[in-house]
Amino acid sequence: MLQSMVKQAQQLPQSGDKPLIFSAIYLILVFGIQHFMKERRAFHLRTPLTLWSFSLTLFSVIAASRVWKQMAFVLLNKGFKQSVCSQSVYVHPVSRLWLFLFVMSKYVEMGDTVFIVLRKKKLIFLHWYHHLSTAVVTWYGYNEMAAGNGWVAALNFSVHGLTYAYYTVTAMGIRVPKSIAITITTSQMVQMTGFVIMNIFIFFWKDDKVCHTTWPLFLASSWVFITFLILFVNYFSKTYLSGTWKSKGE
User: Fold this and answer.
1) Over 90: is that where the pLDDT of 99 sits?
2) Res 171: pLDDT
3) Alpha helices in 16-110 (DSSP H)
4) Which are the contacts of 17, defined by CB distance < 8 A and separation ≥ 6?
5) Which end of the chain has less neighbouring CB within 10 Å, N or C?
6) What pTM, to 2 d.p., does this model score?
7) 86: how many CB neighbours lie within 10 A of its CB?
């Protein structure tokens, strides 16, 4: 079974249209459901949401441990530059599989938005823009075997392990201390800051044959990381510094 999954990971469709088609379907579905729900009662969905969030928590934690193992090996044995630029994460069958699953998980995680609109919760721009942009950029990054993706996957899996654990607890109706919510949002900002810094290094290293990227991908990922950072900082300021945050399970 593992061998077949690795083989599938080596055959991610190269079509440039597919992530854009999936993104269009996502937007139509989400805003279509939101419109459909306007005059209808919200679904509670506590049990399905709890199971959904817990499954993604478990997946993220396992995936993070697998990718970090490869990243730590390269970092400790070859240094930081190689940990960013080396394509060993695409060559080693285990890390390649988890990078493939990382890309696929971005499309699965779009289900978060479906829960929001079915439960008639507030759908903020940061939420759907985050899911949409991440899904597109990770797809192209994997197909291009671009530099830096090992770090992106390792850090993102780690942060999502925390984030989905938080979602699991709140879905169960448990009150969560404000400090935990602040820690999770802060980890998102730290993550995006790290990605921006990493792209600065890649900019100076991109002429090196071992540090592969393309200008369209570099510009797109830089735009995504910077806008994410700005949006998370704005969210942090409005949510936690304005005094509007309420500690309650959802």
Assistant:
1) yes
2) 94
3) 18-36, 46-78, 80-85, 88-91, 93-108
4) none
5) N
6) 0.89
7) 21
